[in-house]
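Entry 14. Structure prediction run on the chain below.
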Amino acid sequence: MDQQTKTELEAAAFRRLLKHLDERKDVQNIDLMILAGFCRNCLSKWMMGAAEEKGVDMDYDQAREAVYGMPYSEWKDNHQQKATPEQLAAFEKTQNK
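Output returned:
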Protein backbone atom coordinates (compact mmCIF):
# COMPACT_ATOMS: atom_id res chain seq x y z
CA MET A 1 0.00 0.00 0.00
CA ASP A 2 1.38 3.42 -0.90
CA GLN A 3 1.71 6.18 1.70
CA GLN A 4 -1.07 8.35 0.23
CA THR A 5 -3.59 5.50 0.40
CA LYS A 6 -2.48 4.65 3.94
CA THR A 7 -2.91 8.29 5.00
CA GLU A 8 -6.37 8.45 3.40
CA LEU A 9 -7.46 5.26 5.17
CA GLU A 10 -6.14 6.52 8.50
CA ALA A 11 -7.98 9.81 8.01
CA ALA A 12 -11.20 7.98 7.14
CA ALA A 13 -10.87 5.79 10.23
CA PHE A 14 -10.29 8.88 12.39
CA ARG A 15 -13.36 10.59 10.92
CA ARG A 16 -15.37 7.45 11.66
CA LEU A 17 -14.09 7.44 15.26
CA LEU A 18 -15.19 11.06 15.67
CA LYS A 19 -18.60 10.22 14.17
CA HIS A 20 -18.95 7.28 16.54
CA LEU A 21 -18.06 9.42 19.54
CA ASP A 22 -20.53 12.06 18.35
CA GLU A 23 -23.24 9.40 18.16
CA ARG A 24 -22.35 8.25 21.70
CA LYS A 25 -22.53 11.49 23.65
CA ASP A 26 -23.79 9.36 26.54
CA VAL A 27 -20.28 7.97 26.92
CA GLN A 28 -18.52 10.37 29.22
CA ASN A 29 -14.86 11.31 28.89
CA ILE A 30 -14.12 9.91 32.34
CA ASP A 31 -15.49 6.53 31.22
CA LEU A 32 -13.22 6.62 28.18
CA MET A 33 -10.26 7.51 30.39
CA ILE A 34 -11.02 4.66 32.79
CA LEU A 35 -11.47 2.04 30.10
CA ALA A 36 -9.18 3.18 27.30
CA GLY A 37 -6.75 5.65 28.81
CA PHE A 38 -7.77 8.45 26.43
CA CYS A 39 -10.76 10.69 25.82
CA ARG A 40 -12.07 13.33 23.46
CA ASN A 41 -9.77 15.92 25.04
CA CYS A 42 -6.79 13.65 24.41
CA LEU A 43 -7.79 13.39 20.75
CA SER A 44 -7.98 17.19 20.67
CA LYS A 45 -4.49 17.49 22.10
CA TRP A 46 -3.16 14.94 19.63
CA MET A 47 -4.77 16.84 16.76
CA MET A 48 -3.28 20.11 18.00
CA GLY A 49 0.13 18.43 18.27
CA ALA A 50 -0.15 17.07 14.73
CA ALA A 51 -1.08 20.55 13.48
CA GLU A 52 1.94 22.01 15.24
CA GLU A 53 4.23 19.39 13.65
CA LYS A 54 2.90 20.42 10.23
CA GLY A 55 3.24 24.13 10.97
CA VAL A 56 -0.53 24.60 10.99
CA ASP A 57 -1.90 27.20 13.40
CA MET A 58 -4.48 25.47 15.64
CA ASP A 59 -5.22 26.23 19.25
CA TYR A 60 -6.78 23.91 21.82
CA ASP A 61 -10.26 25.40 21.41
CA GLN A 62 -10.12 24.86 17.64
CA ALA A 63 -8.90 21.30 18.11
CA ARG A 64 -11.65 20.53 20.62
CA GLU A 65 -14.28 21.96 18.30
CA ALA A 66 -12.97 19.70 15.52
CA VAL A 67 -13.26 16.67 17.82
CA TYR A 68 -16.49 17.55 19.63
CA GLY A 69 -18.24 18.92 16.54
CA MET A 70 -19.18 22.09 18.46
CA PRO A 71 -17.56 24.49 20.88
CA TYR A 72 -16.42 22.61 23.96
CA SER A 73 -18.44 24.86 26.27
CA GLU A 74 -21.60 23.94 24.36
CA TRP A 75 -20.82 20.21 24.49
CA LYS A 76 -20.02 20.44 28.19
CA ASP A 77 -23.25 22.32 28.97
CA ASN A 78 -25.41 19.91 26.96
CA HIS A 79 -23.75 16.52 27.36
CA GLN A 80 -21.20 16.33 30.18
CA GLN A 81 -22.45 14.87 33.42
CA LYS A 82 -20.88 15.29 36.83
CA ALA A 83 -18.54 12.39 37.58
CA THR A 84 -19.85 9.99 40.16
CA PRO A 85 -17.77 8.99 43.20
CA GLU A 86 -17.42 5.53 41.63
CA GLN A 87 -16.08 7.00 38.38
CA LEU A 88 -13.64 9.21 40.25
CA ALA A 89 -12.40 6.25 42.30
CA ALA A 90 -11.98 4.09 39.19
CA PHE A 91 -10.14 6.92 37.44
CA GLU A 92 -7.85 7.38 40.43
CA LYS A 93 -6.90 3.69 40.25
CA THR A 94 -5.82 4.12 36.64
CA GLN A 95 -3.56 7.02 37.63
CA ASN A 96 -1.65 4.97 40.21
CA LYS A 97 -0.41 2.37 37.72
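Residues 68 and 75 are 7 Å apart (CA to CA).
Filed with the rest of this week's runs.
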